[in-house]
From TrEMBL:
Residues 1-145 form the UspA domain. This is Universal stress protein. PANTHER family: STRESS RESPONSE PROTEIN NHAX, UNIVERSAL STRESS PROTEIN UP12. Belongs to the universal stress protein A family. InterPro entries: Rossmann-like_a/b/a_fold, Universal_stress_UspA, UspA.
Length: 145
């Protein structure tokens, strides 16, 4: 049924369950799996130009976190039968834009994303990446809690 699955991962505990689901689905369907880490844009507008070391440190930290998240998904893929895994890092876009744009570019059949289960005021103030991806995605989205 699925030929190409996009896993949006940030290495957090909430993406752990999503990672396991995505790997299991890829195994079951013989699908290719792409693990995507999106590094948000540098949050300090104007400061990076004055202090390029801050921008470089921010980018390096994002790349390190992406490598850790990708290594974890790779380890899951190596348990049991091997899943065809591709890893990607998208930088300087919001998580929602990066996920939706990558899904469109790669032509995936399914997006798997974790949700931390925020509710009430916290969800209203902080928003939900998963909910926004569901609203904007051109393909089905599986949200794992």
């Amino acid at each position: 049924m699925f030929k190409h699955i996009l896993l949006a991962t940030d290495g957090s505990a909430s993406s752990e369950h999503a990672s396991r689901l995505a790997v299991d689905l890829a195994r079951t369907h013989g699908a290719k799996l792409t693990a995507l880490y999106v590094a948000d844009p540098y949050p300090y507008i104007g400061i990076g130009e004055l202090n390029p070391a801050g921008l470089q440190a921010y980018a390096a930290a994002g790349q390190q976190l992406a490598a850790q998240a990708h290594a974890h998904v790779d380890a899951l893929c190596r348990e049991g039968s091997v899943v065809a895994l591709d890893v990607r890092l998208v930088e300087d876009v919001t998580a929602v834009s990066g996920i939706v744009q990558t899904a469109e570019t790669l032509g995936v059949d399914l997006i798997v994303i974790g949700s931390n289960g925020r509710s009430g005021i916290e969800r209203l103030v902080l928003g939900s990446v998963a909910a926004k991806v569901v609203a904007q995605s051109p393909v089905p989205v599986l949200v794992a809690r």
